Amino acid sequence: MKTRRPGIVQLNLTHAYASALLVCAAGSLLQACGQGVPLTPTAATADTAATSTTTTTNTTTTTTVATPNPTTATTDVTITVDATASGPAVNRLVLGSNVQWVYGGDNLLTAESTNFDPAMLALVQNMQPSVLRYPGGNQSDLYDWTAGVGPLSDRGTNIQSGTNQREITYMGSGELLMLAHTLGAQPLFTVNVIGGTAAEAAAWVRQTNVTGLRTAAGVLLPKVEYWEIGNEPYLPNPEGSQPNTCELAPAVYAARINAFTQAMRAVDPTIKIGIALATDVRNGIAFVSPGCKGFSTTVLGALTQAIDFVSVHDAYLPYAQTDHPATEEFSAAMAATESIQSDLAATRALLQPFARYRSVPFAITEYNALFNPRPGSAYVDSMASPMGALYVADALRFFAGRDDILMANTWSLSANDHWGAIHAATSASGPYGRPAYEVFRLYGAALQGVRLTASVQSPTFDAPNLGYGAAATGLPLITTLVTKTTSAAGAQTLRALIINKDYKLAHVAGIRVANATVSSAQVSLLTAPDVLQTDDLPGAMQRTDSTLAAASLPIVNLPAHSIALVTLQLTTP
C-alpha cells in the first residue's frame, strides 16, 4: 500500500502521552480493556428481568440487559442452520493485520524506545490479531533488516518511504516477534525485493529461524514461518520518472523470486513463501502499471521454484476517483465482496495453466475500505468510519467463508493516519479502538470451532457501477457467518455473525436451528448513530451486549447498518 504519512499532530500527542506512562517492557502481559458504547436498551416488560449492568472504561462502555421475549415479533429475515452438520475448521488467520516499522511501529512503542506503550498494547491484546505482517507495505521496498536488531544503542537507520528521511529502527524484528509471542500470532515478513539481495533475505531467515532472537530474559522468540517476496512490484514506479513502468519488470521479478526462494529455503526448507501477483484490469480500470500488462502470466511462466501462496491486494474497495452520493458509496461498499470474488476468480484463471501453482492459496496481505483517496474528497478518511467498518466486517465474512484463503491482513493495526484499527492517544484521551477494532473483537469471538453452511432468506439491494465494483442486482441485505463449537462433554454452541447492509432500515431476523433446542441466547450488537461519521472520535461504533429470552426461533432486531454476534447454547436430542 502506498500510504500517506501518519498525521504529525497525532504522532506528537501520542509520544507526549506515552512518555508520561510507565515504561512497559516488551512482551509484558496487560489486562484487556473496554467494550464499546451502549445503545439505549429495550425497555423491560413484565416477562423479563428489569436489570442491567453497565461497565465503563476511559473510552468505551458496555451495557448488558435482559430483553423482552421476542417470539411474537414479525421477521423479514430467516437464517436456517442444521445443528448436526459439520464443516471445515475456522481459519483464524484471516484476523491478521499489518505493522509498520516507522514511527515506533505506528505508535505501538513509547517515544524513542523499544518498549511497548502499555495502553496501546492492552488494546492490541484485546483485539487479538492472528497474523502480524512486517515491516509494512512499501516500507519493505527500502527496508534493511540488519538496522533493526540488537541493543538500541547499536541500531541503524532505515529510509521511511513516505518522507524519504532516515529514522532509527525502533520497531525491529525482535520487537515484532515479541509482540507476536505475546499475542500468540503468526509473523509474516516481507523481504526487500526492490533494493535488497537474495543473500540479505537468506541472512534474515537465518537470524530469525536458525540463530534465533531472544528477549532480554533469554526467552527464544518464535520463528517466522511465512515470508513474502516483495509488496506490490506490479504498480507504477513511485519515482515517477517512468510512469508507464512497474517497480520491477515481470521478468526481473521472476528472476529475483527464483534467487530469493532458493537462497532462503537453503537456510530453512520449512518456511512458506508467497509472491505478489495482480490482474491487469478490474471492472474496466487498469490496475497493473500500463507498461507491465500480462505481469502475472509473465512471472508465472518464468518461475522455477515452488511457491506456497499468492499475495493479492484486491480488496481496497470500492475505490472511486470521484465522489458519489452517500447512498451509492455505501451500496458499493456493501457489494464489494462481489468484486473480490470476481478478481480472485480471474487470478485463479491466470494460475490455471501452470499445474504447479494452480491450487496455491491466496493471502490477502493488505485490505481495507478505500473510497476516494484524493485530497479534498468527502470520503478520503472514510476507512475509519462505521461505513468502513461494515465493509471490513463483510470482507472478513467473505474471507472466513472460503477454503482457498490462507490469511488476510487488514491495513493496518494502529495509528497510520486513519488506517489503523487502533487510534493512538490524543490530548483528550488515551488510545482507543476505531470502528474496525470493534468488528475484529466480534470476529475474534465468532471464529471458533467449525464453519457451518447457513441459508438466508433476506430482502435484497442493488449496487451501482462504482470504482472497481461492477453494478450488481439482487444482493442479500443480510449476510451471515455461522460457526459451531462442541465441548468435551458434548455441549454445543452456535455463533452467528450477522450483518445488516441496509443504509436506512432495520430488519428482524429469526434464527431457525434444525435438530436442536436453544437453551440460552446472547447478542452483541454494533451500531452507529452516523454510519458516515469521519471525525475519528471515540464512540463512532457502539456496542450493546444483551441476553435474549430462549425461544424455539430466536429473533434478533437488526438496526440499520449494524452487525450482530448471536451466541446460542444448544440442547440436542
What would the keywords be for this entry?
single chain; 573 residues; alpha/beta; eight-stranded mixed beta sheet; eight-stranded parallel β-barrel; 11 helices; disordered N terminus
Strand residue content: 25-35%
Tell me about the largest β-sheet. Answer: 8 strands, mixed
Structural class: alpha/beta
Helix content: 10-25%
Radius of gyration: 24 Å
Strand order of the largest sheet: 1-2-27-26-29-24-23-19
Mean pLDDT: 87
What is the oligomeric state here? single chain
How are the secondary structure elements laid out?
Elements: H1 8-19, E1 52-56, E2 61-66, E3 77-82, E4 96-98, H2 102-107, H3 118-127, E5 131-134, E6 157-160, E7 165-168, H4 173-183, E8 186-191, H5 198-211, E9 226-229, H6 250-267, E10 272-276, E11 281-282, E12 285-286, H7 295-302, E13 309-311, E14 315-318, H8 326-334, H9 336-351, E15 362-370, H10 386-400, E16 405-410, E17 422-423, E18 432-433, H11 435-446, E19 450-452, E20 455-457, E21 460-463, E22 472-476, E23 478-486, E24 492-500, E25 507-514, E26 517-527, E27 542-548, E28 555-558, E29 562-571
Parallel strand pairs: 2-27, 3-25, 4-5, 4-16, 5-8, 8-9, 9-10, 10-13, 13-15, 14-15, 15-16
Antiparallel strand pairs: 1-2, 3-20, 6-7, 11-12, 17-18, 19-23, 21-22, 23-24, 24-29, 25-28, 26-27, 26-29
How does this model look, in words?
It is a single chain. Helix content is 23%, strand content 26%. It has helices at 8-19, 102-107, 118-127, 173-183, 198-211, 250-267, 295-302, 326-334, 336-351, 386-400, 435-446, and strands at 52-56, 61-66, 77-82, 96-98, 131-134, 157-160, 165-168, 186-191, 226-229, 272-276, 281-282, 285-286, 309-311, 315-318, 362-370, 405-410, 422-423, 432-433, 450-452, 455-457, 460-463, 472-476, 478-486, 492-500, 507-514, 517-527, 542-548, 555-558, 562-571. Strands 1-2-27-26-29-24-23-19 form an eight-stranded mixed β-sheet, covered by helices on one side. An eight-stranded parallel barrel has the order 4-5-8-9-10-13-15-16. Strands 20-3-25-28 form a four-stranded mixed β-sheet, with no helix packed on it. A hairpin with a 4-residue loop joins β1 and β2. The radius of gyration is 24 Å and the shape is globular.
